[in-house]
Structure formats: C-alpha cells, structure tokens
Specification:
alpha/beta; 5-stranded parallel beta sheet; 193 residues; 67% helix
C-alpha cells in the first residue's frame, strides 16, 4: 500500500495514525481534518488506496465520507468509531463495504487489518493487470481478424492468403502485426469505403 489518507478532526489522533502508517507500512500519508477536505484530496489524488477515518469529524459523523469514498473511489475505507455506534450500524457499514474498527482498539489489531487489506489490494491489482493484458490481446486479435476479413472481402483472398499478406506486410514495415493490421484496415477503408 503506497497512498493513504487519514481523516481526523483530532490532531493528536491524526498524528498517531500517520506515524503508525509510515512506520508500519512505509507509505505516503496525507491528512484531512474534514470530509470536505477529504473529498478535495480524493479529487486531486485518485490514487489513494486506503482511507482511515477517525470519527466523528467536525463536519460529518464519519459515516458520510466513508460511504462517499466507497461509492466514488477505488480506495478501501476503515472507519474508526465508538463501539456502541459500530454495533448499531454494523449491517449498514458491512453492506457498503466499509471496514469498521471499534474504539478503543489496539495497534496490533489495526496492523493486522491493514496488512490484510494490503494483501487483498495487491492480489486485486495483479488480477486487474492480467485482465488489462488479456483485453489488449483480444483487441489485437479482433483488429487482425478485421483486416483479414477486409482483405478477403475486397481483394478476394482466402483466409490463409490474408494471414500471410498481413504477416508479410508487418515484417516489411517492421511493425507489430496488430499495428500493420490497422494500417491495412485504413488503406482498404480509403479505397473501398
């Protein structure tokens, strides 16, 4: 985890949480005192991976900004709240995806919780990267297939001839096959469409 936002109207708690995060996770920590400031920070720095809210805030109970973060950003959210409020609203928070820590809490519980979130974020990031790679590969295959189809339709080639033509074109131009396919699509589009 690299980017964390601590949201707390209590300066002492904000400093303690910031120091804890920096020492335990060697991450970049930003702070906000109000939910308004937090929203502005998220707008300016959407790469924040975790928000830790020490409720209540001076302009919000903490639940409002937590729900905003979950609904409008990709960050995980920990809401530190009084035990009686946590019990009262636990179902609502869990359904929203907000992680609740009851006050008072100890550092080891918070550490294990954040470490678990960090592991989950890293796994999700790897899956996301693999998905992006596969989507790009699928798009390249679609482009190549479209170029082959156009060669077959407008130049009367067989699929094997169209495939060979694209490979030869890409090799002659020293370009990736999908880029060569885009050029062929553009040329055939200009000629026949």
């Amino acid at each position: 985890m690299e980017n964390v936002l601590i949201i707390s109207s209590n300066k002492n708690a904000s400093e303690l949480l910031s120091d804890f995060m920096k020492e335990s996770f060697q991450c970049s920590v930003r702070t906000a005192e109000t939910s308004y400031q937090a929203k502005n920070i998220f707008d300016a720095a959407p790469s924040i991976e975790l928000a830790v809210i020490n409720s209540p805030l001076s302009d919000d109970s903490g639940a409002g900004i937590a729900e905003y973060i979950i609904e409008n950003t990709s960050a995980n959210c920990i809401l530190i709240i009084k035990a009686e409020l946590a019990e009262k609203h636990m179902d609502r928070f869990e359904k929203s995806g907000i992680i609740v820590v009851s006050k008072p809490f100890n550092r080891s519980v918070l550490y294990r919780l954040i470490k678990t979130i960090d592991i989950a974020v890293r796994r999700s990031w790897k899956l996301y990267q693999e998905t992006v790679r596969l989507e790009k590969k699928i798009e390249e295959i679609r482009t190549i297939d479209k170029a082959k189809f156009m060669l077959m339709q407008y130049r009367g080639m067989t699929e094997a001839e169209a495939h060979e033509y694209l490979e030869q074109y890409a090799m002659n131009k020293r370009k990736k096959k999908s880029i060569a396919a885009l050029e062929v699509i553009d040329k055939l589009g200009e000629q026949y469409l």
